[in-house]
Amino acid sequence: MNTSTRPAAVAGAFYPAEPQALRGLLDRQLSSVAPPSEPRPQPQPHPRPKMLLVPHAGYVYSGEVAAAAFATLPPWREQIERVVLLGPAHRLPVRGIALPTVSAFETPLGRIPLDLDAMALLKDLPQIESADPPHAQEHSLEVQLPFLQRVLGDGFKLLPLLVGGASPAQVAQALERVWGGDETLVLISSDLSHFLSYEQAHARDRVTVERILQFATDLVGEQACGAAPLNGALALAARHGLRPRLLRQRNSGDIPGGEHRRVVGYVSIAFEADPAAPALLEQRSADQRLGPILLSGARHTIAHRLGLPGPPAPDEGAHPALSRPGASFVSLHDAGGQLRGCVGRLQAQRPLIEDVCANAFAAAFCDSRFAPLRAEEWPGLQVEVSLLEPAEPMPVQDEAEALAALRPGIDGLILAWRDRQATFLPQVWAQCPRPAQFLAALKHKAGLPPDFWAADLRLSRYRVRCFNELAYASEDAP
């Protein structure tokens, strides 16, 4: 048996090389994103993450974003026996997917044995090659290892897959063979956009993240450097009925002292096992038909008002959901990705297609925060439609209980107090990733101070199904 080990290659550059310093940094970053450890109330537990998307830059830049994903793992530490780690090849070209020939990877925190049995399951696939040189200096896989060692201990084996020119179908085929059950965690390593201005990166990454949450499988390297492994993994995650949960998003310009001229984007997303997977898969199939119709209806309404050519008005018979009562929000963004209007309803009071078209008109021409949309803005306009599920009350006694009950990346929230009401869609978690930050911003929107609480304040939460027209484009996003 081969007993050779791949030594750490980027220790001292991407993360500390000294074990004690490395443990200290990991613990600080993990504790910065972990839920508060108050005796009461405890946060509502999330389902077990089956797959995580994490960035792979130096810890000073992307460590806290990655930590938000790794902090979800400690409750499942005893279950996870194998980590399948996929990342892009940056240093040397890889024709398909490269497996190493060594039997362990090493970091300053110790050796991690490779899962040789799982590796053997893949070696007959034509896209698999056994090659150590592409792995030798590659950072996209290595930077994840100290985090895994810190949260899982030494009870897991590693299956490292370095992806080059493999197609989404080839990645999904290999991943399916080692998908396993509760004992297997899948980890996808990827950053987002590279070397755009802060504003450009924010706009592009917002769209990319929405596409990832919609299980797009045609991402390109300009959107995510790990597009090759990510496309295949997303195809398989959708097939298995996983539910995505946005954990944290930022770019290198967000760190203290970070420069804004050339930044790199980062995101962490958990894809969780869902007990309602069969119904979820059926819903996703229906949404693939419904989303483009709603987006077309919204765009038709705006184009008609501007006197510009646009898509035809949707036929109400094109989908059974169109004529049923529905509640929606329509959000518009300009060519730079900045919000240009957002209007919606919280309750289903009219046919869905009528609601979407009316909200599209109002978002473009009646949102009091913005001037009415002009014809010259039409070419760069981006349209997003969010369908709201029925809201459910949150029976909390105080703010601490409310913060513990909120589900970042999942919950839209309605705040009502006397004659004041405000809501945030779940998409706002990307800008306000902590529950306290999210709730304080919502209070501000309602005209209340950030420390306000009253016994008669009411909170309700809801989920949305979000459709961004770029997610349905037939060509790659810009």
| Quaternary | single chain
According to CATH, the fold-level topology of the largest domain is: Protocatechuate 4,5-dioxygenase, Chain B
Low-confidence stretches: 36-42, 473-478
Instruction: Count the E strands.
Output: 22
Total domains: 3
Termini separation: 48 Å
- Coarse morphology: globular
In the CATH hierarchy, what is the architecture of the largest domain at level 2?
Answer: 3-Layer(aba) Sandwich
Strand percentage lies at 15-25%
Mean pLDDT: 90
**Main beta-sheet strand count, sense and barrel state:** 9 strands, mixed
Please report the first level of CATH classification, the CATH class of the largest domain: Alpha Beta
Spell out the CATH superfamily of the largest domain. Answer: LigB-like
By DSSP (H or I, 4+ residues per run), the number of helices equals 13
Task: Give the helix level as a range of percent.
Answer: 25-40%
In short:
It is built from 13 helices and 22 strands. It is α+β, with helices and mostly antiparallel strands and 478 residues long. It folds into three domains: 5-275, LigB-like (Protocatechuate 4,5-dioxygenase, Chain B), CATH 3.40.830; 279-387 and 467-472, Hypothetical protein ph0010, domain 1 (Glycoprotein, Type 4 Pilin, 2-Layer Sandwich); 392-462, 2-Layer Sandwich (Dna Ligase, domain 1), CATH 3.30.1490.150.
